[in-house]
Amino acid sequence: MNLLPLVKKGAQLAFSTDAPPPKDITPIIQELVDVPILKATKNSDRYLIEVANEELLKGLVPNLDLLATLPVTDLVVTSPSTKYDFISRYFAPRIEIEESFVTGSAHCGLAPYWSQRLSRKQLYAFKSSGRGGELFIYYQDDLAYITGKAITIYKSHFNGLLL
User: Fold this and answer.
1) Are 91 and 75 in contact (CB under 8 A)?
2) What is the DSSP string of 69-100?
3) Average pLDDT for residues 100-114, to the nearest whole number?
4) Which residue ranges make up each domain of the chain?
5) Residues 6-13: what's their mean pLDDT?
6) Residues 15/110, Cβ–Cβ less than 8 Å
7) 20 phi and psi, to 5 degrees?
8) What are the counts of helices (DSSP H) followed by strands (DSSP E) for the chain?
9) Under CATH, which number does the domain 6-162 receive?
10) pLDDT at residue 4 above 50?
């Protein structure tokens, strides 16, 4: 699928990536979710785990109490999808985010993970949540160029400029 015509619409940000190396699925990691884990990884501040399919991902209930006690900031759960290259969910109770709507920074690990798995640089992703969001990702040279729709949450003034 050629995504380049699609990525012209929306806001685009470039993120440095943090490729997650494989990690053994320990009993504690398995306790984080109530579904079987296929693969586990850990990058600088998060666990990234893959489950078999989007139905399992959408229905899983994370163990947020356990996650809040671990030496990571957050948990990203991902799976292949029938409509997208992959879908994901993001949980970060240590920073008071039970589940994020759409999290660009989570794709700092997801972009290299799925790029390697699918042998592709262009990825079409969906962040499954109450609001959800589609993301178009171009991964190159340890950067993830992420394009999607944006919603203004805060406005601020700095030296007379609206930011």
Assistant:
1) yes
2) TSSSSEEEEEEE-SSSSEEEEEEBGGGTBSS-
3) 86
4) 6-162
5) 66
6) no
7) -85, 120
8) 4, 11
9) 3.10.310.10
10) no
